[in-house]
Design a protein that fits this description.
The complex is a heterodimer of chains A (about 900) and B (about 350).
Chain A lengths: L1 H27 L10 E3 H12 L3 E2 L2 H4 L3 E3 L7 H12 L1 E6 L2 E6 L8 H4 L3 E3 L10 E10 L10 E4 L4 E4 L5 E7 L1 E8 L6 E7 L3 E7 L18 H4 L5 E5 H5 L3 E2 L2 E2 L1 H5 L5 E2 L9 E2 L7 E5 L2 E2 L4 E2 L4 E2 L6 E7 L13 E7 L9 E6 L3 E11 L3 E10 L1 H6 L4 H4 L2 E16 L2 E15 L4 E17 L4 E18 L9 E21 L2 E21 L9 E2 L3 E15 L4 E15 L2 E6 L10 E7 L4 E19 L2 E12 L1 E4 L10 E4 L7 E14 L4 E18 L15 E17 L4 E16 L14 E2 L6 E10 L4 E10 L3 E2 L2 E7 L2 E6 L5 E2 L3 E10 L10 E9 L9 E7 L8 E7 L6 E9 L1
Parallel strand pairs in A: 2-5, 6-12, 7-13, 19-24
Antiparallel strand pairs in A: 1-3, 4-5, 7-10, 8-9, 8-11, 11-12, 14-23, 15-16, 17-18, 19-20, 21-22, 23-24, 25-26, 25-58, 26-27, 27-28, 28-29, 29-30, 30-31, 31-32, 32-33, 33-34, 33-35, 35-36, 36-39, 37-38, 39-40, 40-43, 41-42, 43-44, 44-45, 45-46, 46-47, 46-48, 48-49, 49-54, 50-53, 51-52, 54-55, 55-58, ...
Chain B lengths: L1 H6 L3 E3 L11 E8 L5 E6 L1 E2 L7 E2 L4 E5 L5 E6 L4 E3 L11 E7 L5 E4 L2 E2 L6 E16 L6 E15 L8 E18 L2 E13 L8 E3 L5 E7 L16 E12 L2 H16 L15 E3 L7 E20 L4 E7 L8 E5 L8
Parallel strand pairs in B: 2-20
Antiparallel strand pairs in B: 2-3, 3-5, 3-8, 6-7, 6-9, 7-8, 9-10, 9-11, 10-19, 12-13, 13-17, 14-15, 14-16, 14-18, 15-22, 18-20, 20-21
Classes of the chains: A mainly beta (about 900), B mainly beta (about 350).
Chain lengths: ~900, ~350
Amino acid sequence: MKFYLSYLFMIIILATYPVASHAMTSESERAPQPPSENLMPAEQLLQRLQEKHNVQIFYLPFWIKDQFFSAEFLDMSLEQAVFTIGRELDLTPLFVDGNIMFVPSEGRDHRGVAMDLDQMTVGSPDEFGRHSRATLSGTIVCGTTGELLIGAVLYDPVTGEGVSTDIDGRFSIVLPTGDLRLRLSYVGYEVLHQPLTLYSDGETTFSLFESSVQLGEVTVTARRAEENISRTQMSMINLDSKAIEELPGTFGERDIVRSITLLPGVQTVGEFGTGFNVRGGSADQNLILLENVPLFNSSHLLGLISVVNPDLVSNVTLMKAGVPAKFGERASSVMDVRLNNSLEQERTSVMGGIGLLNSRILLETPVVKEKATLYLGARSSYSDFFLRNARHEDLMNSTASFYDLTGTLNIAINPRNRLTVFGYHSFDRFGFGNETTHEYTNTLASLRLNSAISGRLSSTLVMGISDYRYRILEESEIMPQLDYYMDSAIDYKTLKYVLSFHPNTLHTIEMGVQAVGYDIDPGAMYPSGSESVISSLLMDTERGLELSAFISDDISISNQFSLELGLRFTQYLQLGAGKVYEYAEGLPRQREHIIDTLFYDKNEVISRYHGFEPRIGMRYSFTDYSSWKLSFNRHYQYINLISNTAIMAPADIWKLSDTHIKPLKSDQLALGYFRNFFDNSLETSLEVYYKQLSNVIEYRSGAEVVMNEFLETDILDAEGYNYGAELYIRKNSGKLTGWTSYTYSSSQRRTNTATPGDQINKNAWFPSNYDRPHNLVVNAGYNISRRVRLAGTFSYSTGRPITLPEFTYWHSGDLMVYFSDRNKYRLPDYHRLDISISIGENLNIRERGNSSWTIALMNVYGRKNPYSVFYRREHGTLHPIDSFNLYQLYIVGRPLPTITYNFSF
Amino acid sequence: MVIMLQFSACQELYDPKLEIDKKYLVVQGLLPDDGPGQVILSYASVFGQARHRTPVFDAIVHIETGQGEMVLLDGWANGYYYTPYSFRGKVGETYILHVETPDGFSYRSKPQTIEPPIEIASVDASTGTDFQYFHSHVSDRVFQREIEGTHVYIEPANSPLQSIQYRFISNLYLQYTISTGGGMAPPLIDYCWQNREITNLVRRDVSHDETNRLRTAFIPRYGHQMHHFNFPQRDYESHRMVILRLFSLNKDSYAYYMARHTQLSDAGKIFDPIAAQIPGNMYCVNDEDQLVFGLFEASSVTEKAFRTYINFATNEAMILPVDISEPIPVQGCLREEMPPFWL
């Protein structure tokens, strides 16, 4: 028992260490008593002992403050010295992994920072007694970094009232005035019991500190917040910076998007591949927000790595259902990525990493102390250098490179207003052989102003742009007359204003408006070079405007029952200039059935759609550790990624809803049971969902999507449904942490038209490209020591549906292929095991510079998981086509070792 | 980097392990307005199992005319069936193909109407180059080679009231002479020719009226390049002629040929393009689950021939219309006698 308690205290030590450091700085400003010549400060002595014996010694600085010891301790053995020092200070030294940790001896009061906190006061003492209740509002931040914590819980055990922070880290709650003892909790952070006197309405900021790192020999039960039980919202996964650090890596590096695909209900079509699929939806149905503006291509290098620099990410939230009314635009999910927003940066620091695919660097610097902080991150690949030096001719002529730049500037204008300026730019270029090269860029920028208007009212104003440009270059040394390049682009602008109102304990109301403007250039082809004889060809540009208004109320009816009601109204306008082809009714939508062409002037409304999107969520908690949740969501989506490939390819084009292509409508009903065990250290959930889809885009056989003026003739209206059950078990603490998820799901589509030419599989239901019924992920990490972590991820899923050639036949001198019904077959099942070992940073905070290593082995047993299957003609001597063969393409077909070096100073 | 190095070697043959034991009929039927109808019947092969054509013998094949007349096709060798020689399709008339195979299945085509023939507004030619692909038996690799030559284009007459859909077959006719004899014997002249289809060399044989200028042939400039086109190299080559047959397609035939073109173009694309299924116009009468592939095409035909040559002084391609009144056999020689189609 004593042993256990000692370690428990150690956790507290490590959790509060940073605070202690700050405290030490301020305390050190008071001059200590001058020691005699033979004595030295305890801190100096311990430092000397560390150096002499090459060990690290951990302690809380205030334990040894103003303590002096004889220099003769340096002549003792290490054990003798530390035990003597410990006895003098009422501390017990523990030897862990060759290092020494001082922990408080039994009986000493070392309950951590919470016990040492001063009583807080909020409001004006002059008003004390005038109100029986008052509104307490503010933010909850990470005490170490100053980052806003999203979803942190504040709870008054006396009244049973509680609230969680919103996506901006803010909260507001009406509580009885007088002395309170609030309980604050957040995933992975120490619970804080904060004494507070509430006089009247007022604001404050609470700081929480991370739970200690896991120790080598003990299992500590973290008092993890039961947020997954108590919040109304379901199907939501929130990862803070600490959780992100523990995510399994890709090519030895953390990758936000790739890691998300290991969570239940999230899959990808190919082994890598661009984008991801949530609950049977296509990749374009995910709204990936990077600091409030959407990313239109989230992947570098054909999906090998995502475009989000993980070093800058402070929080990622993925919402698969129960999406709040303030989010819209896409039908399947919202992935909200927030970057570092701390203002607590005290000094300039640089960190970076050198990996297999790229190197990265991050600069964090205060511009004005506690007023403005700048974060700048950059990544760049160097694969082009290696390719140029490759011996293989095709590789030598290939190119594969990318870079991205990310920056945020956080400014505290005043205590009530905070401004975040964000900018991002990425560039990708790849090509195989010396002919076709693909290039694309993402450029994003946003301004976000968070304002606390009053204790009960706050607002967020967001202005943002996102620009995605794509280019194909076809260049040939021996046929320059056919050289061309083709450009396409999407330009997105948004303006969003959200008001958060907390009238009383029962209600948290959010309302706002949003305007989104789309400008799409579907394609323009130009000759490349002076010798090219290619004619220029320009497609008509597209413009659209999506206007939304929304309101939601999170109603806490009782401790057991809460309700979230929301409504979003969207009005979509397709604007000119443009032309619309009219097709004969009752006939397939084909070019030969065009009966008229209508022309529209600039900004003239070509087509309009509108719809209400109800959002309903419910929670009923049986106990503090279990709850049932139910949600219903409707979404309309007015922009689609048009792709005639199963795998999302960078050349796919974005297309707005128009006269012929109606907006996608998605209704999702989800039910979940959430149950935590062992004081919230084991988190489990079972969710089932059913999703009904209307106006789904499917493609005519052999559809052409690039530079197709009659695109609607290759697109078919379809309907669909997705359903599934997701089991999720997560262990948050102890030496062994990780999660296991199993998902059973189905995603089906069908056309529903009487016109045979517009049917797929004769209108029968068929599995969509994202239908992978069984999906299992086991992700585990084991802390061998404080610095060394062994991790592994095993994933399995049913092979994706595929249309395969079934027969060949000769016709007009060519060997032709007859394909099966759409998606009749499946690729072989997918499974892969990755393992890694991470050697962490030096835990001595006095070390200015630090470094860490990650050594990983991807695809341990060399499984050849097909990325795609395609057929290729085999040339013969007497005829251009003699036969066809099927080939499978795989990205990582053998065990792939990687090593990554990270540094900071 | 390792990934990139692996990329070139990360393709391998994929065996889908198809377990299909069905036999499906393939129909290649053509009823033109300028000659007898022909239907070729065969069975499809399960993907990856066979490359040769399996002919269907002893089928009963009829063409039903718009007047309800049933015209029986004679079965020849190798699964070929022909209408009587005098039988011709008529523009504007509708035809249905009936097939009964020995295994008891009966097939029928959707009614096919013959569209009016294509008017050709202009023909022109220009010198240029083209890529061709050649298979090396030595290295078993396919090489890409740039060939100089003459491109031949046509522009169909475009009626605003009529949507013109067409395909073509282009043949290259090559004639040459061989002088034999010598010594004391009087010299003898052999008049020889080759007439071969080269449609595949332009890699697109179907079009719509909005693509006004369509390349229909490519003819190599130099004689030594002719063997790449499956012509023997002839030292005494005298003339070259392109023979074009333009087929005016109805809706079913156009959809078929466009899908066929897309399918051929999709080969080798790694991003899993949506399969280009080729829609036929045949169906099984007595079992709707019994598939049948292919097409019964009823088309009017416009045939034109053009002599092509290059003016070496100006490097300009020249093209001259030629009247051909006699059918030209695939190849042959006549000793001391000019064939009637001799240029």
